[in-house]
Each structure stands twice: as structure tokens, then as C-alpha cells.
């Protein structure tokens, strides 16, 4: 499955636009490790806990959107867009939402 953030695929022609597809993933952040994340927020530095949760959520959402496109018999997804949110003011979870257009290629 070809996925791209662009609206075209170099060297390939889009034969049909099948449907908009989307997927989401919500990852909890370990409460104990979340304390260290907040500590880093105050004093600076990278939060491996948050980065790990984001990476896992992005990976899960990407696999899910591919599965949804496959169910439409798509060859590719174009215009892929990721949105990331931390809905709780206190932290504790991260949400990744991905959307794109499933297409059939020639």
C-alpha cells in the first residue's frame, strides 16, 4: 500500500478516488512516568515516555488506515494528514488521528 502526504504519486496515475478514510489511536501514558514527563516540561529536555506513546499511536493509526483503504480495494492513500492531541489538561493520554483519500491506481 502506497501512502503519501501529497495529492499525487510520481509516475502513477490515479484512476479513481474511492473514499475518504480515517483512523485513530489513543495511547495512555504511564502515571508514574508521567511525573517525569511533567518534570521535563518544567526544566526542559526530551520526554521519551511521550515520544514512545506518540510513535506507538502513529504506528497503530497508520496500520488501521491502511486496513480501511484495503477494505475498499485501494492501491494507495493520498493526502495523508496526521493530527495529534492531548485532550486532558493533566496529560495522561495522547490521541493521533489520521485521514486521507483511498485511491485506485492505473
Relevant terms:
106 residues; alpha+beta; Translation Initiation Factor IF3; four-stranded mixed beta sheet; 35% helix
Could you walk me through the main structural features you see in this protein, from its secondary elements to its overall organization?
The chain has 106 residues and is an alpha+beta fold. The protein has a single domain (2-105), classed as Translation Initiation Factor IF3. Helices cover 35% and strands 38% of the residues. It is built from 2 helices and 4 strands, in the order ββααββ. Strands 1-3-4-2 form a 4-stranded mixed sheet. The protein is elongated and about 50 Å long. The chain starts with a strand and ends with a strand. The mean pLDDT is 86.
Largest beta-sheet characterization: 4 strands, mixed
Give the overall pLDDT as a whole number: 86
Strand content: 35-45%
What string, H for helix and E for strand, traces the elements in order? EEHHEE
Structural class, from helix and strand content? Answer: alpha+beta
Oligomer: single chain
Number of domains: 1
CATH topology: Translation Initiation Factor IF3
- Radius of gyration equals 17 Å
Order the strands across the largest sheet as they lie in space. Answer: 1-3-4-2
Q: Helix proportion of residues, in percent?
A: 25-40%
Apparent shape: elongated
Task: Name the poorly predicted regions.
Answer: none
CATH-wise, what's the superfamily? Hypothetical protein apc22750. Chain B
Strand runs, count: 4
Distance between the amino and carboxyl termini = 14 Å
Query: Helical region count?
Result: 2
By CATH reckoning, the class would read Alpha Beta
The CATH architecture can be given as 2-Layer Sandwich
